[in-house]
Each structure stands twice: as C-alpha cells, then as structure tokens.
Amino acid sequence: MQILGLVLILINVGTIAGPVAGVALIYQNNLTELVIPPQVQQIVTDTIDTGRSLQLPQYVNSTCDPSTGTVTATFSFTNPFDLNLTINSMSADVQCHTHSFPLGHVAIINPVQLSAGETATVTIVFTYTEAAENHFQTEHAGETSIGIDLVNSSLDISGISVEAPQLVTAPNVPIPP
Fold this sequence. Notes:
The protein has 177 residues and is an alpha+beta fold. The protein has 2 domains: 2-50, no CATH class; 58-174, Sandwich (Immunoglobulin-like), CATH 2.60.40.10. It has helices at 2-26, 38-50, 130-139, and strands spanning 58-65, 70-78, 85-96, 102-108, 112-114, 119-127, 145-157, 160-164, 168-174. The chain starts with a helix and ends with a strand.
C-alpha cells in the first residue's frame, strides 16, 4: 500500500514539475521572457537605452455642440518607439484650468493605430456635466472658451496600462453659450 501511495505522489509531482521544467528548458537562454513579453521588453529597452519615452498628447483643436454640451477635442500623439502601437482606450477627468473645478470625463472614440515613429491624431469626447454648466455661468460668464486640464489620465497602449502623472492642458476649449 505504501508503494502505491509513493507512486501516486511521484505521478503528481511529475505532472506539475514536468511542464514547468519543459518551459524553463525552452526559455533557458532568456528566462525573463517567461514573465515579461518581448513587446514590453522592447519598450523598456528603447526607453532606457535611447532615452525615448512616451510624450504627453499635444492639444490641436476642439469643437463644441451647444445643444448637447458635448466637446470633441483633437490631440496629436507621437510614437517614439521602433514598433507599432495601438491606443485601445484613454480616459481622464476634465477640470477647469483656472479653478480646478471638475467638468466631466473623457474617453477616445475609437482605437488609434500608431506606426513606429509616426504621429497620429487622437480624438476624445466628453459632455459637460450640469455642475460644469453652472460653473460656466457663475465663473466664466460672457466667455466663449476656457482652458481645461485632463487629470488622472489612463491609457491602454497595446495592452499596457499607462497612468499619466502630469497634466495635459488644452487652452481655448469652447463652452456652451
């Protein structure tokens, strides 16, 4: 009976240790690939070795639909790496640049393809909240545009989550009359 128990234990250990040893043998020359995908390694290598890093998006322009309070803003985003990237999602909180008052939340309309070394246009959309409209009436009466800041920004770039610690500022964003 003890021999049968010992054989079963060895079978259990073999079914776990065998595949693990096989994978370790396959990746014996580069064990970091077991944990870190090659695309992430490439981005880290490019960032460290060449001093390249993701730049914050640069504001281009914006439009406002006064009937819905929806703002569409365009930013340019440059891919400094030698590999193609996709911005799958982007979100951020919008606040008044002058008063740091929360105005809404933004998201990109569609995923954006960024070829290696290229600059692409990223379009974001947000709707002013009712509190934002009250803020415009009290703090920005008579103005047609204000500066906004995108804060707490997060992006999904080719499956890698990136948190932007810095503000992205967009001057002269139209507000509803």
